[in-house]
UniProtKB/TrEMBL annotation:
Belongs to the short-chain dehydrogenases/reductases (SDR) family. The lineage of its organism: Bacteria, Bacillati, Actinomycetota, Actinomycetes, Mycobacteriales. It comes from the Bacteria. It comes from Hoyosella subflava (strain DSM 45089 / JCM 17490 / NBRC 109087 / DQS3-9A1) (Amycolicicoccus subflavus). Pfam families: adh_short. Keywords: Oxidoreductase. This is Putative oxidoreductase. The keyword Kinase does not apply.
Length: 280
């Protein structure tokens, strides 16, 4: 029998809207006992919590700025004391900056992106993973990386760097757990191309990698999580691109990615979400 969230606790970051909210809805639909939702956007978080409760879920909402280690540790302590470590942890919160590297502000752009996309998943996972290990029953961790973590791309250098880090860290933790005999805790790393959530407004889907629907990404991530799938690339052509980049000479790959697939031009008309400080 496969892994089920029925009767279990699920924690989702960046849960006030977008994919985070869809993950929370999925957890309730599948019978989770408690769904813990984190987000910095208090008004939207309150609305989402009310909607989830109306759908029959037991919800614990916490306003948390995941760029702030102190807030993470305080919120995590509350969760551990009240519910114990979650059976499913979904590190979904993320931000993007679409500009040339030299136009990034060190504090508002670079540090902010690294804090949320790289350090937050590490800090949050560290706050709960020992409880998962000690509990001995089946647990799952989903980390949202990106196709940008596999292929370099102009006008998203810091974002790409953050997702390369997220992918490397997440899959390394998976291996550590397997090698040390902690096979009851499984890590799934998800690497989607552009998703139609508003976060990538203006970006163009490269050839063979159309803009993804949020529900599709959530559904496939959820199934992969239950099956213990280590890595999920969406669409599967992302994996093809990763392979081609690995075998082709750099100039040949640059020509293919830039002139044929359109990867290198996909961010030229990027606008992003109107409120760029919101995480998703």
């Amino acid at each position: 029998m496969g892994f089920s969230v029925k009767g279990k606790t699920v924690l989702v970051t960046g849960a006030a809207m977008g994919m985070g909210r869809l993950f929370a809805e999925k957890a309730i639909k599948d019978g989770a006992d408690y769904v813990i939702i984190w987000d910095i956007n208090a008004p939207e978080l309150e609305k989402t919590a009310a909607a989830l409760e109306e759908a029959g879920g037991k919800v614990h909402a916490q306003v948390v700025d995941v760029a702030d280690l102190d807030q993470i540790e305080k919120a995590a302590q509350e969760v551990n004391e009240q519910y114990g470590a979650p059976h499913v942890l979904i590190n979904n919160a993320g931000v993007v900056r679409g500009k040339h590297f030299w136009d990034h502000d060190n504090l508002r752009d670079t540090k902010f992106t690294i804090d949320i996309n790289v350090l937050a998943p590490m800090y949050i996972t560290r706050a709960f993973i020992n409880g998962m290990l000690e509990r001995k029953d089946e647990s799952r961790i989903i980390n949202l990386a990106s196709a940008a973590g596999t292929v370099a791309n102009p006008k998203m250098s810091v974002y790409a760097g953050s997702k390369w880090a997220a992918l490397g860290w997440s899959d390394s933790v998976r291996l550590e757990l397997e090698q040390e005999g902690h096979k009851h805790v499984k890590v799934t790393t998800v690497c989607p191309s552009y998703i139609d959530t508003g976060m990538f407004e203006g970006a163009k889907g490269p050839l063979l990698a159309p803009i993804l629907k949020p529900q599709e990404v959530v559904d496939k991530s959820w199934e992969g999580m239950k099956n213990g799938t280590p890595l999920i690339f969406l669409p599967k052509t992302v994996l093809l691109s990763k392979g081609l980049k690995g075998v082709l000479p750099t100039k040949a790959w640059d020509f293919l990615a830039g002139r044929v697939l359109g990867v290198y031009h996909s961010m030229e008309e990027f606008k992003g979400r109107e409120s760029k400080e919101s995480a998703e």
